[in-house]
Amino acid sequence: MPLPAPLTQHIVRRPQRIALLQHIDEQGSITRAAKAASMSYKAAWDAIDELNNLAARPLVERSTGGRGGGGARLSDEGRRVLRLYQRLQALQAQILEEAEDSSDLDLLGRLMLRTSARNQLHGRVSAIHPQGRNDTIELTLAGGVRIEAQITHDSTHRLELEIGTAVVALIKAGWLELATLDEPVPPGSNSLHAEINELLSDPQGPSELRLSLSSGQILCAFAEPEWLQTHNLGVGSVVQIRFLPTYVLLGTPV
To answer: Are 119 and 168 in contact (CB under 8 A)?
Structure first.
């Protein structure tokens, strides 16, 4: 089975994050793997979340009793991606040797794009509904999770979107609104249910939450500590994530 195009692009753009998989496979611990990769524990989990979200199936699974704490292990899909990465390493030197000029590499770097959006979800277009100058794009994410994005009709053509096109949905953490499960969904808004996996308090502002969808994909959002306390929410609680289709940005592999 071929890898999703966004994950393939990620392997090319950011091989150091794929290399983290090798450390996890060797160490069996996020804490040890992060140290071996010269990353913070949080940065390592952010990298894992991004990889899991871009893959068709999670690459890294949490485990209990890992050596050194923070136990994790590679899934079968993770080991397959790791093998592909190791093959990429073997080819990398040959590619660099064949570059005619250093400017070749500069050009390739400019053609690749990084984004500040914390939430990057791989999916496919399942429907396109024209609405005047705009289109509502229905997306099916991993595990059958569905969301909608609203973009201009021109953008639909520029991205060459059609049924089945692989896309990456980008959503800034600050654009996600959290609500309890019994609160009504505003008309026209996306609504997903997710479990709070981790809660990082910040004395200077809102708390950062890592939220797990039923598909295993992870979203990052913010919430005021007072709101969490009022509703008695913490790690293990299930909340509603709401966001407008206009807050979903779409990208396609180049």
So the answer is: no
Ramachandran assignment for 49, one of left (phi > 0), alpha (psi -120 to 50 degrees), beta (any other): alpha
At residue 107, the pLDDT reads: 46
* Cα–Cα distance for residue pair 242/99, rounded to 1 Å: 47
CATH 2.40.70.10, applies to 124-168+247-251: no
The answer, as to whether pTM is greater than 0.85, is no
| Rounded mean pLDDT, 179-187 | 94
Tokens of 101: 């000029």
Backbone angles phi, psi at 76, to 5 degrees: -60, -40
As a CATH number, domain 173-245 is: 2.40.50.100
What average pLDDT does this structure show over 201-226? 90
What b-and-e string marks burial along 13-43, b requiring 16 or more CB atoms within 10 Å of the CB?
A: bbeebbbbbbbbbebbbbbbbbbbbebeeee
Pairing, β 134-141 against β 60-62:
unpaired
- Percent of the chain predicted with pLDDT > 70: 78
What residues does CATH 2.40.50.100 cover in the chain?
124-168+247-251, 173-245
> Side chain identity at 253, as an amino acid letter?
P
